[in-house]
Amino acid sequence: MHYNMVSTLGSGVCGGSVYVLNLREPLTFSCNSLDLNRRINKVTSVDCTIWTADTNCNSIKAAIGTNFGVSLINLETGRSSMVYPSKSDVLSLQFDLSGNILLCGTRKGAIVAIDVRQRQPKCFEVSARTSASKIQCPHKKTRRNLNSSNAVFMSSAVCSVVALQSDEQYFFGSSMNGSIKLFDRRFLNRDVQSYEGHMNSHSHIQLGVDPSETFVLSGGEDSFVRIWSIKTSELIFEENASNCIFSTVSWPHYGDFSYGYDQFLNNGDSLYKSTCSWGVWLGSREGLHYMRGT
């Protein structure tokens, strides 16, 4: 994988945008604006706020969550369609492993499972990404009734959803009142597990699950980093790592050089074995951090 999708939030003056960034060569802090412009390509822009975005397993299609709902974008052609109109901001979303099911978390606390293979309304289209035409979002928000067959409800705005790769039926939801729960799509009337100790009241904080799907990690508004056992829901790690809020998490994958070349030489693919320390990237407004533990 040599490309990455980047989306911008937008503001009260202009909407958000979706870009594709060429990562065939690593970015450096000395990278000038001209070089960066050659490596980043705008796919499209919208006249609304982009709260979240994700790509499917083959990175051909992207989903964006906005204040009008969810749109599906073909990253090769730039064509787009609305797949889930919503009156509530879609703050978090993620494709499952198949790329057919999209989990969407809303400001009103709903997590909705959408099958993107179903025929969708032709709300709008855009031209090829080279022209970066602007998507016109509908001004009237379409009402859609949610029911227990395709949605689960949390007690506050859903700021993160994470689908497990080992079993597509299970997914995590995290809300802005500090609640973290594990759900089963076959039994949406109740949660499977609850994870206690997370601190959040209003922040857009993401959850992170390690590649072995043993742990779930989150930063908190109290600047603590916490890790829970997925199986037992036990809080197994808690540390005040910095004075900032870590809002994004990225666990390195097996054989991934992104967690540091020296760590790769020392540990290689054994990074997640019980005898070795773990490492994870954490993002905040203050910058990017790398954290290790045992």
TrEMBL record:
Sorted alphabetically, which keywords does the UniProt record give? Repeat, WD repeat
Q: Which InterPro entries match?
A: CUL4-DDB1_E3_ligase_receptor (IPR052254), WD40/YVTN_repeat-like_dom_sf (IPR015943), WD40_repeat_dom_sf (IPR036322), WD40_rpt (IPR001680)
Query: Out of the domains of life, which is the source?
Result: Eukaryota
Protein name per Swiss-Prot or TrEMBL = Uncharacterized protein
WD repeats, residue ranges: 207-238
- Record bears the keyword Endoplasmic reticulum: no
PANTHER family cross-referenced by the UniProt entry: DDB1 AND CUL4 ASSOCIATED FACTOR 4, DDB1- AND CUL4-ASSOCIATED FACTOR 4-RELATED
